[in-house]
Design brief:
The chain has 2 helices and no strands.
């Protein structure tokens, strides 16, 4: 499940970057970045608990 979260986060960051350039400063685009960072943080916390 961990790799899926990282892959999803990467996809969301890429979509955010594309959307940021195309739609210029839309609030919905920034939500993609926020969700991506939350997923990465969630994965890191899971890894810490396992070790």
């Amino acid at each position: 499940m961990g790799n899926i979260l990282y892959n999803l986060a990467v996809v969301l960051i890429i979509l955010w970057a594309i959307g940021f350039l195309i739609f210029s400063f839309s609030a919905i685009i920034h939500l993609l970045l926020l969700v991506a960072f939350i997923l990465v943080l969630f994965k890191l916390l899971q890894d810490i608990k396992e070790n």
